């Protein structure tokens, strides 16, 4: 260790004799005197800006730190504090503890964490990203840090990957469908300590930036996930209770069910009508051909269906039909029969070779 006394500037100024240099330099003397009595600090914003967001606090040197909620540990009967039990199978209410992700218990081997902000349990390897160990707790600690499971939106808000629309844009609701999409910048979003709450006029369809406060129904006795919350003096036997369901909820569920059923029926009817119209159009085109050509087309279609390994699909069968059935007048037919045929093209040669293969397979059967 180097020689000398190690004191900060503030402590050194308190123990030192008064300095009269400020009187000698009236312009910059007070400034230099203040600098010599002040410890170095990071650039600090005003306190109202530093304390503007939840979960963030400013240190004395001006830097920021994340506020972590603390929970006290239970005391042991002897010495020290009791650590959480990560492999237990039943909770305090005598309910089986199951992982929210995989639905399996700890089996007295796989460690599980309970979220401090909800009732969910998670295996360490079911968390995204997986955890190698539970959160560290020192031997002398009387408190532990709170743990938040991946189901909470705070992870997404602070990930820096959240893309937000500009709600202040005047043209946000009048963008053309074929216009270029507006660039959205990823942000880290935090909730302000004193936000301005906006009461929505409508219960659905309101644009927001992701920072919302859900108002629970005062007549709802569930925990937010559809589970009934029993009182301290209530029996927890579900089969011995009859739940009173509000009439409005039943009506809305019935209307939603009927509406979804009607939409599904309309989609099926539209699909059946399109299929029937295509079938009628195909039949009309087929009837327009003479009877011998219809027989030839049916024979080729049957050959193609019986021998799928020849790669003779519907379009190629149609091309073969058009090539083999000529509608030319007799004079043109006789002239074409007396003249030497032109050399076949590559596509025509390929079609003829496939037809030859079909004929050979048929004769060899």
TrEMBL record:
<dbReference type="Pfam" id="PF00628">
    <property type="entry name" value="PHD"/>
</dbReference>
<dbReference type="InterPro" id="IPR011011">
    <property type="entry name" value="Znf_FYVE_PHD"/>
</dbReference>
<dbReference type="GO" id="GO:0032221">
    <property type="term" value="C:Rpd3S complex"/>
</dbReference>
<dbReference type="InterPro" id="IPR052819">
    <property type="entry name" value="Chromatin_regulatory_protein"/>
</dbReference>
<keyword id="KW-0862">Zinc</keyword>
<dbReference type="InterPro" id="IPR019787">
    <property type="entry name" value="Znf_PHD-finger"/>
</dbReference>
<protein>
    <recommendedName>
        <fullName>Zinc finger PHD-type domain-containing protein</fullName>
    </recommendedName>
</protein>
<dbReference type="GO" id="GO:0008270">
    <property type="term" value="F:zinc ion binding"/>
</dbReference>
<keyword id="KW-0863">Zinc-finger</keyword>
<dbReference type="InterPro" id="IPR013083">
    <property type="entry name" value="Znf_RING/FYVE/PHD"/>
</dbReference>
<dbReference type="InterPro" id="IPR001965">
    <property type="entry name" value="Znf_PHD"/>
</dbReference>
<keyword id="KW-0479">Metal-binding</keyword>
<feature type="domain" description="Zinc finger PHD-type">
    <location>
        <begin position="98"/>
        <end position="153"/>
    </location>
</feature>
<dbReference type="GO" id="GO:0006357">
    <property type="term" value="P:regulation of transcription by RNA polymerase II"/>
</dbReference>
């Amino acid at each position: 260790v180097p020689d000398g006394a190690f004191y900060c500037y503030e402590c050194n100024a308190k123990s030192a004799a008064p300095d009269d240099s400020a009187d000698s330099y009236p312009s910059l003397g007070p400034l230099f005197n203040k600098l010599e009595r002040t410890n170095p600090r990071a650039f600090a914003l005003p306190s109202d800006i530093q304390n503007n967001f939840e979960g963030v606090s400013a240190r004395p040197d001006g830097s920021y730190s994340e506020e972590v909620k603390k929970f006290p540990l239970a005391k042991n009967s002897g010495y020290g504090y009791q650590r959480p039990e990560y492999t237990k199978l039943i909770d305090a209410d005598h309910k089986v503890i199951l992982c929210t992700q995989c639905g399996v218990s700890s089996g007295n081997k796989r460690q599980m964490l309970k979220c401090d902000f909800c009732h969910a349990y998670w295996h360490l390897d079911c968390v995204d990203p997986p955890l190698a160990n539970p959160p560290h707790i020192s031997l002398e600690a009387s408190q532990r840090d709170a743990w938040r499971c991946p189901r909470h939106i705070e992870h997404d808000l602070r990930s820096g990957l959240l893309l937000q629309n500009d709600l202040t844009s005047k043209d946000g609701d009048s963008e053309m469908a074929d216009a270029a999409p507006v660039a959205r910048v990823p942000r880290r979003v935090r909730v302000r300590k004193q936000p301005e709450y906006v009461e929505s006029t409508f219960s659905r369809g309101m644009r927001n930036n992701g920072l919302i406060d859900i108002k629970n129904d005062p007549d709802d006795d569930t925990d937010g996930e559809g589970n009934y919350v029993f009182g301290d003096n209530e029996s927890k036997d579900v089969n011995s209770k009859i739940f009173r369901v509000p009439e409005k909820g039943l009506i809305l569920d019935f209307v939603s069910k009927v509406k979804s059923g009607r939409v599904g029926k309309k989609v099926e009817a539209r699909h059946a009508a399109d299929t029937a119209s295509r079938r009628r159009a195909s039949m009309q085109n087929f009837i327009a051909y003479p009877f011998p050509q219809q027989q030839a087309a049916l024979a080729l279609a049957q050959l193609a269906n019986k021998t799928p390994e020849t790669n003779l699909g519907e379009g190629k069968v149609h091309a073969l039909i058009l090539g083999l059935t000529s509608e030319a007048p007799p004079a043109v037919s006789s002239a074409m029969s007396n003249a030497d045929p032109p050399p076949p093209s590559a596509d025509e040669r390929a079609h003829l070779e496939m037809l030859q293969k079909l004929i050979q397979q048929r004769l060899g059967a």
